[in-house]
Design goal:
about 220 residues, 8-stranded mixed beta sheet
Amino acid sequence: MQDLISIIIPSYNGEKYIAETIKSILEQDVPVEIIVVDDISTDKTIEIARSMGCKVIVNKEHKGQVAGKNTGIREAHGEYWLTIDQDDMLTKGALKRLWEEFQKDKNAKIVMAKLKDFCSADTPEQKRFCKPEPFYGILTGSTMFKKEVFDVIGDFREDIITGDVIDLTNRLNKAGIEIKKIDFISCDRRIHSANYGRTNQKDEYKDYAKILRERLRK
């Protein structure tokens, strides 16, 4: 039997696309648990997630997407875990392909596949923001971790909004934990007008500057 894989979805008012995200996970051919960490949605996000069999954790106060990842990791029972945004979709066979890399290489702690942007049909004007080719990045939907990784490096930093990936990369490098990359597209990344990465781009620049200043002080 394959190991349980925990899928963590931080959510907030995601009723428009989250059912497609969950469906793409349920169609994977591996044992999964889906943990939705909701930041007090005011739409039907929670109702949809529960109706599709997800474990739903609702914050008592607004905490943001990064805190949602940490909550999900702490609640996860799987040997491996992966986060995905509420509007993206896993490709067919993605989880099995990522999991198989850990079986081939017992020393692997993190396996990264590629993402492929697509423009959401309801916001065709956003097409200019789509990257034309598949790409790597420690982003949701592309990277599977052994749960033990965060026992070594600690949680995602919740004091930064979008620079958590930059900070995570720095801590992995410091701990000597390598990322194994594979030439496979694991996630279709939806680009639309309310895409998290686009709406928080200014905060990403601020977080990057903050982390850089901290590194220079050390």
